[in-house]
Amino acid sequence: MFSNRRSDDVAAPRAGRPRSETARRAILDAAADLALAETCVPTIDAVAARAGVSRTTIYKWWPSSAAVLAEALLDRFHESIEFDDALPVRQALTGQVDALVRLLRQTPAGALLRQLLAAAASDERVARALLAQWMDPRRESAAHHVARGVAQGDLRADVDVELVVDALFAPVYHRLVWGHAPLDADLATRVCDLVWPGIAATEP
Amino acid sequence: MFSNRRSDDVAAPRAGRPRSETARRAILDAAADLALAETCVPTIDAVAARAGVSRTTIYKWWPSSAAVLAEALLDRFHESIEFDDALPVRQALTGQVDALVRLLRQTPAGALLRQLLAAAASDERVARALLAQWMDPRRESAAHHVARGVAQGDLRADVDVELVVDALFAPVYHRLVWGHAPLDADLATRVCDLVWPGIAATEP
After folding, report:
1. Are both A97 and A67 inside the same structural domain?
2. Are residues B83 and B104 in the same domain?
3. Would you say A101 and A172 are in contact if contact means Cβ atoms under 8 Å apart?
4. Which tens digits make up the pLDDT trace of A2-12?
5. Considering A58, A74, A90, which residue would you say is the last residue of a domain?
6. CA distance to partner chain B, nearest, from residue A19 (Å)
7. B40 in contact with A at a CB cutoff of 8 Å?
8. In angstroms, rounded to a whole number, what is the distance separating the alpha carbons of residues A113 and A127?
9. Is A200 helix (H, G, I), strand (E, B) or coil?
């Protein structure tokens, strides 16, 4: 549903689309492979070498290696925000929170996100890339299901969609960033159980 | 109520307590003053010079300038977690979330926390100091009021205290760290309104 959105973030080249799509694909794969193998933000040179492209080609589309990596991670883990509208809203939202928890528990994505957030604290371009390439698409997907819940009468008509998305996902990111409590396997279910009474439509 | 706790985190010197207390006080004040004036983690040398102590004196008690700053910030803003047991539980918890929001809106504390978190991503000692000196005391204070609410029958007996504290405070830190949405002046009230139905005891 959101899979067409990402390529719109980058100006499409006027000609040679197939070849540049191949290059973009190779760059994203190289960045994700290198980062996940070594749990650190790869250099532009390393990504260029692995993808078989020039540094100039990468800088044509991304301002920094952190920006490449943010998009590469979203791309690599995109299925974690793909939940069908046929699912009940609560199941879709719990599933999306759970997919994030599993991503952070089972892959180096959590450690990489911490490094990208650390870079974002002192580099506004990284902060913007991280929002645009990682957080915004994930939030949009969750907000879509919250809005669907309101439209279907499952959720209160007056819910603050942005705040509901925060309430569902913030505890997971909070534990990742501060490390004060574990990312338990059942964390998503417990968070959704806690939040649900505050957003569910009351019976008429 | 928690004000006696902090000094226990550091081994009390066997003799000369008054003089070392004066030095500790001067170091914490120097670290907070420098950090808040310049919105960056001060160097050990700068803290030592301003406090009129040697580097050795600082390293006797803290492993790094980030650790000094974490404790200095907690110390400087300690009133933001001091809520009286005479207050109704919901008012005490909302007040504590609101005090955090105001701290992040109105002082450089938020920018400093982002820098400390960035340092923590690559330095486990900073991560531990930040938890011990900033987050743990704040969470303990909130957990105290949650437990009080359970004891008084205001909150469900089966609440997960740690998760409730996450649910109340994580959205605030989440917006600070990612910057995807503003730290609105009424954020604390909205978060507490959203969380409350999930934790309030149902009428018998």
Report:
1. no
2. yes
3. yes
4. 343 344 344 44
5. A74
6. 34
7. no
8. 11
9. strand
